[in-house]
């Protein structure tokens, strides 16, 4: 069983220790922020997820060249997740794509068909 709250508690403890003993712009701290962002993503706490990604990216940009793969990956992950969060409600809201008068029942039902599974349509038709 996944216990996201417990994971966040441990990540926060690790982060507190790192912030106390390491420079605030240490890439290792950025890594912890990225890990926390992953947990928040799993919990669908998207605002907190983006906050963590932003902190990680800010640190990486301070200490690494702008073309460094970790920066590009963190920015890419954040952008992809931002698009995901933006469009996910429409993926599950099928009703938004249906006409207002849609009832789910075909209006062109064949009157000769009976709902009984053993009865065949009338052949006199």
Short description:
This protein is an all-alpha fold and 125 residues long. It is built from four helices and no strands. It comes from Didymodactylos carnosus.
What's the arrangement of secondary structure elements?
Layout: H1 4-21, H2 27-42, H3 46-63, H4 69-92
Explain what this protein looks like in three dimensions.
By secondary structure, this protein is mostly helical. It has a domain at 24-95. Helix content is 61%, strand content 0%. The chain has four helices and no strands. The longest helix has 24 residues, at 69-92. The chain is flat.
How many helices? The count is: 4
Could you give the count of β-strands? 0
Enumerate the spans where pLDDT stays under 50 for 5 or more consecutive residues: none
Largest sheet data: none
Q: Using only CA atoms, what is the Rg?
A: 26 Å
Structure class: mainly alpha
Q: How far apart, in Å, are the first and last alpha carbons?
A: 61 Å
Kindly estimate the percentage of residues that lie in beta strands according to DSSP: under 5%
Q: Percent range for helical residues?
A: 55-70%
Give the SSE order as H and E letters. HHHH
- Looking at the structure, what is the overall shape? flat
Mean pLDDT: 76
